[in-house]
Amino acid sequence: MRVRWLSLLCLLLGLAPTAPAQQWYSVRSNHLIGYSEGSDRGAREAAERGEELIGVFAEIFHRNEIYFATPLRVLAMHAEGRPPIVFTPAANFVTVDPAQPDSWTPAAKSIATLTLQDNYPRAQPWFDSAIASYLAGVQFHGEQMELGRPPRGMLPPANGEWIPMATLLTTSQQTPIPDAQRPIFEAESWALVRWLIDQGRMAEAGTYLNAVQWRGATPEQALSEAFSMSFADLDREVRESLRKPATKTMAAPRVEQGLVQSHKVTAEDAHVLEASLTLLGGAGGDEAERKLQGLESQELGLQELVAYMRLHQENAAVHRTLAWAFLQRGDLENAVEHIRRALTLDDSDAAMHYLYARWVNHGEENSIAVESAETRMSSELKAALLREPNYAAALELLGLAELSSGNLKAALGNLQRASALCPRRVRYQLNLARVYEAEGRMDAARNLMFYAKAGDGDDTEVSAEAAELLSKLNKQEKQRKEWAALGVQPAPNAKPSKYDRLDEAIAEDEKAEAVSKNAAARTDSRRVEFLKGRIVKVECAAATDAILTVNADGSTWRMHVADRNAAVLIGAEQFDCGWHGERVTVNYKRSGELEGEMVSLEID
Asked: What contacts 74, CB < 8 A, 6 or more positions away?
């Protein structure tokens, strides 16, 4: 595959004789860009199909807005030998071959996976696998779509192959499923999510995942709290659902044709597009082999692209690609040359303003490496955000620069926004914890540090940093207690927290919850519903409960919040008694006329 990619790159760069290349087209839609050769048909179909899948995702999770921290591109072209997804720092590429209908299944899974990464908090492996498979199985027929079919190539699990739910739900990144069981694991995960969607219980799934990922509850405890079910109950329900036809037809998400715009791609930009996949890309496979082949192909590709750039020095795209490539190699001198040249030719690209700030920061993206960082970097980072307000990496670096200068209020806002846009980027959570610590909000800082310490199984460096910060916090708390014993009073905002010992805190929380739940609550079978509207007011009681008043389509609802400190929130760090006018989605259980018990709240 390496030889094929290098040969293709040489042909595209004009470094070997080749037949005239076909015209390339790009089709830009709301969330992505499709590319194809010969005509814009393939690019248009790729963009529209991708938008439909993203629309289904939004409906499943009741999302008004979908964001991508790294732009999404779909290459509709002959895809033999290409990985289904190629990650680059400038954009993520999904490949699909329009001539091969089966190629849409891995493409749809890739689009779903990328959408999850930037729009849903970290979840367990079964959940991520199931959402990708569920979306890959959606069939579109004009303005209608059919939900609930397994994707091509997936067979529903037979009884003899069934993985017990106790095993499925306890599988983690640290305890992966054996390769031999992977097809069964994926099929059974799909069946579980299909059951959740058909039963309208995705809100409870969010409650379950929140308990496992944030509170450290065991899957068994979380399942009992969120669903009032045991593993055996869940096993039975999901198995029975497979015996019944569960597909349903409904209106497909509407793709606004006015937002789908077709453009011709210049031959130079098409060459650079292909080159960027080799220079900047990474995909699946054996890591050692990938690194070896990647280094060889990237070095050759870099030399060839530099030669191509010398023939096309007025092309901004080639300078942008070289800027990324040299920055990845730590070659700051060459990187800034191409950043400056790209900005001189066309300053509309937010990434180049961000990279210029990175260059000022000695190439660092996750920490501050220079003095007076806010003064030196903020103008370029704000220029990037002016062009792309949801540029998470620029928000993160700006927040760190502001934190380094003591501008805590601005730092908090930018780091919170970056974390909301990239809910699975553990590094962002850890940096947000640093702001909370600087503000004296130790409980909030500690909880995020515990979350970062648990990590996602991939970033051991972040986990180690989080463990070190937690250790320092605990030592500081111990020292304050020793000072207090000597009559030296600690600062008012530096109170010891029960979360210093997470295992004991979890046990205490679970005991308190068990005492507070009566038999009626444990057998509550009311259906979870949802509504969208605006917050009118919030009434917080002296205890921990609250009343949330929401205007939805002209009706005023009163939602009871049993414990605002433990409320399940999306898009907000904590419950705010001062909310007014915010657009929200509320999942609730009806308790009366225009009244309900809040299950979860999402700030739209």
From this structure: 32, 33, 34, 35, 43, 46, 47, 50, 93, 94, 95, 96, 107, 111
